[in-house]
Specification:
Bound molecules: nicotinamide-adenine-dinucleotide
Number of strands: 13
CATH architecture of the largest domain: 3-Layer(aba) Sandwich
Radius of gyration: 20 Å
Number of domains: 2
Largest sheet: 6 strands, parallel
Shape: globular
CATH class of the largest domain: Alpha Beta
Strand order of the largest sheet: 10-9-8-11-12-13
Structural class: alpha/beta
CATH topology of the largest domain: Rossmann fold
Length: 379
Amino acid sequence: MATVRGRALTDLMTQRGHEQVVFVADTNAGLRAVIAVHSTALGPALGGVRFWHYESDADALADALRLSEAMSLKAAMAGLPQGGAKAVVRWDDPDRPRPQVLLDALGRAIDDLGGRYLAAEDVGATPADMNGLARVTPWVTGVDEAMGGSGDPSPLTAYGVVCAMRAVVTDLDGDPSMAGRHVVIQGTGHVGSHLARLLVDEGARVTVADLFPGRAERLARELGVGVVSHPDVLETPCDVLAPCALGGVLDATTIPRLQCRAVVGSANNQLSTSYLDVLLMRRGVLYAPDFVVNAGGIINIAEEFVGYDREHAHTHTAAIATTTARVLAYAREHDVTPLRAAEFLARRRIAEAGQGRWQPGDPAAWTNGEPLRRLRPSA
Ligand code: NAD
């Protein structure tokens, strides 16, 4: 029996509701990977392919289990007819490009799952990896627009963050307008820079920071907004702090230093450990759960499989405002943190779907009866 840090793998799987874990190895291709399918109760399980340096199989497996479950919760809260999964590939240097022979081997393993797992881009992966996988399997998203893909999801992710912010400030003050509110954005990469532009358009006062100061300064010059140095960003007084960099930024050291009324950002796994939601609540900081706020990206990707329609993706993303408001209302009504409320609502939606598992060749549960539009391998 396989174990993870002393615990039987199937114990962990049954405890967290995982359906399937697939280990993949190909000596000639240099591939060592784990694909974890958390749930297909609502439909095929979507999740990123992560190329990362893992010290051990146990680390890779633990990451795959944790991240695939988070994807199920995100999809469930976004109202998507899909579940959550994750593929992690042990790859010593994520900046080293993946040879096609490795992508072929991984693509075959994904193809063997027959559509139960839909691959997407994640940390370390590039659009070139997605295009490479798409040569051998149709079950891959995030390919070039020319191949029927949806392209860069970050503009829609940023739009979803703004929608969540409107719900949060309504909850705080009864007014959804961002005009005149001070928002501090940590990270001016893909999402952070789009977010800054959207907020400036809405009349918000914006301050930006990036690990690479040149990036933040360039954006600040373009938009006429303020800049803070990246070590100071979390303690800059503001209405809303938007973490749009890496995960784990909110921990027992940083939370006591926050000078914001709310945290609403795109970064995945903002809390270094989940119980810190209580510390945030005690500090009077309203934390909008990241997996509710940043769902614009997967909403965009989900559109690819029913025929990509940017307008439809935009309308669906706008619903993040309603979802966030529902989470905050539920949290207040039941006297729990917004994170607990969101986790409960997501798990309830998955449980209500029953024990049913999506089967290859049965797209109806996923596309609500619309014809399945599969992307074709390019070669
Ligand atoms: P990105 O790599 O384009 O940008 C991240 C930026 O954060 C970079 O400019 C980096 O220099 C900066 N940064 C890193 N550490 C920092 C620090 N300590 N202080 C300040 N800046 C720092 O990534 P992205 O695509 O914009 O995504 C941002 C976050 O949102 C990630 O956590 C990602 O997982 C999450 N997310 C992104 C999407 C999407 O559509 N791109 C969707 C859902 C979630």
